Each structure stands twice: as C-alpha cells, then as structure tokens.
Amino acid sequence: MSDALRFPPPELDMSKPTIARAYDALLGGKDNFDLDRDLAAGVEEINPGSTVMAQHNRAFLARAVGFVAGELGIGQFLDLGSGLPTAENTHQVAQRNSPQNRVVYVDIDPMVLAHARALMVENDTTTVITADVRDVGAVMNDAGARRLLNTDEPVCLMLLSLLHCFPDEDDPFSLVRRYLEPFPSGSALVYSHTCSDDAEHARAVTERIHSSGTPWGRVRNPQECEAAVAGMELVSPSVDGTGPARLVDCDTWRKPGTDPVDIPDKRIWEHAGVAVKP
Ligand code: SAM
Which residues fall in a coiled-coil region (predicted)? Predict the structure, then answer.
C-alpha cells in the first residue's frame, strides 16, 4: 500500500499524545488516538471544565475572525498553531465575509495537513503549512505563505491557544512581534492563552500535561500574558465597542448578552483579545 493511502500516516508519532490531537479529543473530534484521549481526560480530571474552555476558545475564534474581516476589513489571515479542522474554522468564517479572503494555516502536527487536505481545505485562497512556528523565516518564506499573503496590506495574525505551548526559554511572546514586524500598520492580532491566577492550580495543570511526554510550555498568569499585546492598540471587548479596551476571558469577548470580564471567577480561563498594530 502506498504511504498516501495508509492511515494513520507513517510520519505520525504514535508513541505519545500530541497537543493537536488531545485538543481535538477535548472538542469531541474523531482525529485522535487512545493516548490523546487519555491526556484530554487527564486534563479534564485535574481541571474540570477544560472541554467547555476549549469550546469557548473556538467560539471566540469565530467571533474575532468575523470582527476582523467585517469591522476591520482585513482579508488575509495567518493562523499559527491552527489545530485540526473542526467546526467554524478560520477560512470558513473569513470567507463567509468575502470568498476572496485568504487564509494560511500553520501547524507542527502533520495530521493537521493530512486532515485539511482530506477536507479539501486547500484551494486558491487557503493553504496549510506543516512547520514549527518558532521558525519565523521558514513560515514566511514558505511558497504558500508567499502566494497568499501580501505584506503591503494589513494581515491578521492569529495565535490562539498556542503561546502556552512554549516554555519561557523560547521567549514565546517575542513571536508576536517577530511575525508582526513586516506587516503594515492596521494589521491585527487575535490572541488567547491558557491563564490562571491560582499558581498552584496552574502548576498542577502544567505538570499533568508535561507528564504525558508531549512538549508543552505552561499556564501563565494574567500579568505575564499581557506581554502578548505589548505595543499594540487593544480593541474594546464590549459588543458595542464602547467599553474599555483590554484583555478578557475569551468567553466574554464581544459575546452578545455578556459583559466582558477581565479576571473571571474561574481557576483557569483563556485570556484573550484582539489588538491592532499602530
Ligand atoms: N489555534 C487552535 C485553537 O485555538 O482552536 C488550536 C489550538 S491547540 C491547543 C494548539 C495547536 O498548536 C496544536 O494544533 C499544536 O499542534 C500547535 N502547535 C504547538 N506547538 C507548535 C509549534 N511549535 N509550531 C506549530 N504549531 C504548534
């Protein structure tokens, strides 16, 4: 049998879980294996509500992409650590606004590419790159990125639920500035990061994920996470756009019928927001 027909694809590491597949398991997807489901169940056990938090993060993604495409009028999206295809992916939301909107997905997990291809996500306006996002040059020089992204016009950089995958040694927040550097003023950042102001709980969740053997960073506190938007102009998280601009619990960002909440009454949440490059 040719490699192209074999499932799982031979390049997949089946010896330990991956974040993309465990996250898919949390979201109730089918693109995961026993070790991934064990990790998802272990995280849910130590932090009840992780599944709901992942759902809130996806709902935030859809609202934020709709806002960036609709209100900011940005038509190109670079979605880093995009994850396995699920409902309401970036290209679906962005291209609902305008079919010409362009999306570049990047993920380190080869299964993302395999499934995106299977779902025929790749077309004239959307591509998927398998790369380590920490190699900014490799991503930005990839033929697909060069074909779809015009850096003379504003780009929306998406870093959702990704930066906590990196340890402090990687200087994860510097990635935001390295990617935004060649993008013009008016470019946008859509961001979320697993966050807690309970240090003991943050450590317990972090240790549970590390114990699975998959590379990961850590849960950070809200003060640390503010570094994601340094030098950017935050957008108001209020539905009508009038409230103070700040980072909030993703479940309260421009969610109809909900007031934005900075520090929710939760042990852990996705700290999130949208910001614009001045
Ligand atoms: N961004 C999606 C979302 O918010 O729904 C998926 C988030 S998932 C928790 C994190 C994703 O980042 C996974 O798909 C994982 O494979 C990817 N990832 C982790 N480290 C990466 C790296 N160094 N380079 C590229 N992708 C990475």
Answer: none
